[in-house]
Amino acid sequence: MLQTESQKVIDFQSLKDNIGRFNLSRSNKTILIPEMNRIGSHMLAATFRGFGIQSVVMDTFKGLELGKAYTSGKECYPCQITIGDILYYLKQEQKRLGDRFNANTYIYFMPEAGGPCRFGMYNKYQRIVLDSFPDLRAVKIGSLTTTDGYSLNGMVDDMQASNLRKAGYLSVVVSDILDRLLWRIRPYEKEKGMADDFIETSMREMEKCFETYGVCKQFDKILDVLERIIQKSKAIMDPEVPEKPLIGVVGEIYLRSHVHANQNLLRVLENHGAEIVNASIAEWVNFTTYERLRDAKTGLRFSLKQFRINDIKDHLKNMVHFAGDLLYQQAKQGQVYKRVKSILNLEKDHKIKELENVLKKNNLFSFDVGTEACLSIAGIWQYAKDGFNGVVNVYPFTCMPSTITSAVIKPLMNDLGVPYLDTPYDSSFQPGREAAIRTFMYQAYQHFNRNGRQQHH
Ligand code: SF4
Q1: What separation in Å is there between the alpha carbon of 371 and the centre of ligand 1?
Q2: How many folded domains does the chain comprise?
Q3: What does each of the 457 residues of the chain score in pLDDT, given as a tens digit?
Q4: Residue 3 maps to a domain
Q5: Contact indicator for 41, 208 with CB cutoff of 8 Å
Q6: Residue 317 domain-assigned?
Q7: Are residues 178 and 66 in the same domain?
Q8: Where do runs of H (alpha helix) occur along 342-372?
Q9: Do 261 and 395 reside in the same domain of the chain?
Q10: Of 225, 219, 251, which is closest to residue 333 (Cα–Cα)?
């Protein structure tokens, strides 16, 4: 049983000592990975295992009641879900292992952002919750942060850090592609369930690939298997099923990726006749690298004005570092998409620079403000201009960046005549949700019948 102390004093030292980057190589610890997007989490865990780091993906959403019990209701919905996931997992482990349970052998993996919204504080809050259970205090929170572009320095040996980062990034891109493949083939499947079964089997196959080939950087072998999967998937599609309206999905990364949290929104849209393209996870990773490069450029401008030599050197060093990372990521992503698109036309990703240009050119928003709103506003605008038949913004109730997105983009979508739907979620079920989705899809069909649709590019 989990036990909590009745009187809790926040241990600030624990926030320093028990959150951060802990060396994972040569340790006997198990990394606990939360399941945000299912395929991505499993692929990342497999990549870690390939590098000799024990890692498991925790079941998700089974501990929601625990998550609600240990939050006040003011936190964002993903925070409640993830707290529930970790408490549920550890509780199960305590049951399974009894006296052999040792909290010291687990590292809970929870990336963070430097703000400006509440994401910057999730792992601190989760630390306070874990510390309130005497028998869970030794569970560390391993954290990567956007403030250094998710660097792995200090978590694995220097020699391995760069290879793990590269293999990890490829696992993100490949997971995006498997997700996009599912949304591409499922609306046209010959028999119900074929696409889901196929993607599940393919995910397992790709997991093995990452576990085997990731560590030795044999990325071509991984991509050969991916190509074969894409080729095979074509047989699932029924050529007799007519083309459907194309719907773009954007929003907060956790909600748009987590099928339980968004109450299976993508499938519901498909049931009402949509073909979906959801924003990718790699887009967010590229964005965080792009932002760090941007910060370094801004810092350089200021330090040049003030003629601070040491600062100039630091900013230049950062610029070279993040420019190199971004170049690598976008080149790798482009290369993978090129290979798969020669077999099946999946939608490619926007380049972050192009999204910033869209915002500037149309005077919509500024990257200076930051947050996912930069990606969502520009992404929605681009979908509309590219001939998508409708766009859905999915996010946790009260999410700051997504609420900004909605406020900026809604009137513009009206002017452009493209159907648009906001779908905020918490753990409650909205009675009007189905009607709102039906109405949206009716409008999307009208748009589709009038304008046809964009072909994937
Ligand atoms: S992005 Fe939205 S949901 Fe996530 S922490 Fe920030 S405000 Fe909360």
Answers
A1: 9
A2: 3
A3: 444 544 456 678 888 888 888 887 767 899 999 999 999 999 999 999 999 999 999 999 999 999 999 999 889 999 999 999 999 999 999 999 999 999 999 999 988 776 677 888 888 999 999 999 999 999 999 987 767 667 777 777 877 889 999 999 999 999 999 999 999 999 999 999 999 999 999 999 999 999 999 999 999 999 999 999 999 999 999 999 999 999 999 999 999 999 999 999 999 999 999 999 999 999 999 999 999 999 999 999 999 999 999 999 999 999 999 999 999 999 999 999 999 999 999 999 999 999 999 999 999 999 999 999 999 999 999 999 999 999 999 999 999 999 999 999 999 999 999 999 999 999 999 999 999 999 999 999 999 999 999 776 6
A4: no
A5: no
A6: no
A7: no
A8: 352-361
A9: yes
A10: 219
For residue 259, give its domain range.
246-279+350-451
What is the rounded distance in angstroms from the CA atom of residue 67 to the CA atom of residue 76?
A: 11
User: Ligand 1: residues whose CB is within 6 Å?
Assistant: 76, 78, 117-119, 252, 372, 396, 399-401
The C-alpha atoms of residue 346 and residue 340 are separated, in whole angstroms, by 8
Among the candidates 107, 127, 148, a domain finishes at 148
Answer for the pair 31, 53: CB distance below 8 angstroms, yes or no: yes
Q: How far apart are CA 346 and CA 455, in angstroms?
A: 10
Assess if residue 312 is contained within a domain: no
On whether both 365 and 220 belong to a single domain, the answer is: no
Is residue 292 one of the residues assigned to a domain?
no
426 Cα to the center of ligand 1, angstroms: 12
Model confidence, pTM: 0.95
H-helix or E-strand spanning residue 390: strand 390-396
Q: What's the CA gap between 170 and 282, in Å, rounded?
A: 9
Measured distance CA(23)–CA(184) in Å, rounded: 40
Residues 133 and 200 in one domain: no
How far is Cα 103 from Cα 181, in angstroms, rounded to an integer?
39
Q: Which atom belonging to ligand 1 lies closest to the Cα atom of 372?
A: 1
> Among the three residues 236, 264, 296, which one is the final residue of a domain in this structure?
236
Q: CA 367: distance to chain centroid? A: 19
Instruction: Give the Cα separation of 31 and 109 in Å (integer).
Output: 6
Separation of CA 32 and ligand 1 centre (Å)? 22
Q: Are residues 68 and 206 part of one domain? A: no
Residue nearest to atom 4 of ligand 1 (CA): 119
Q: Do 263 and 227 belong to one domain?
A: no
CATH number of the CATH domain containing 394: 3.40.50.11900
Distance 376 CA to ligand 1 centre (A): 13
Cβ count near 7 (within 10 Å): 4
